[in-house]
Amino acid sequence: QVQLVESGGGLVQAGGSLRLSCAASGSIFSINAMGWYRQAPGKQRELVATIPTGGRTSYSDSVKGRFTISRDNAKNTVSLQMNSLKPEDTAVYYCNADISSAALFRNQYWGQGTRVTVSS
Fold it and tell me: What is the dihedral of CA 68, 34, 32, 57, to 10 degrees?
């Protein structure tokens, strides 16, 4: 089976920076798009940023210009550099990846999430 594990969450002050990382492991044949989602308390999960294999990134309007998504295809990792953090960025951040396993079973996989808290 394929697993995604996030790391890097924590508590920061408004205006600060934080870098999240996600590592995919298991029987992986290929990875297409990878991305980050977040879910704030009492809110539904929302898309933050995505990056396909080709590298053309996409960001939600609320984070564009402040966040940067990147990936290392050789290591099967995706990162999210978050700068100029705002209290409204507070949420649990989830890693997502479109992965085909060695058995050619393709699915969307999710990590367990990493908590980001931005204080004012």
Answer: -30
Sheet of 3-7: strands edge to edge? 3-7, 18-25, 77-82, 67-72
Cα angle 118-113-111, degrees, rounded to a multiple of 5: 150
Cross-strand partners of 28: 101
Rounded to whole angstroms, the Cα distance separating 77 from 67 reads 17
pLDDT digits (tens, 9 = 90+) for 26-73: 999 999 999 999 999 999 999 999 999 887 999 999 999 999 999 999
**Rounded distance, CA 100 to CA 13, Å?**
39
pLDDT of residue 113: 97
* 80, 47 contact by CB (below 8 A): no
Q: Quick check: 102 pLDDT over 90?
A: no
Helix (H, G, I), strand (E, B) or coil at 54: coil
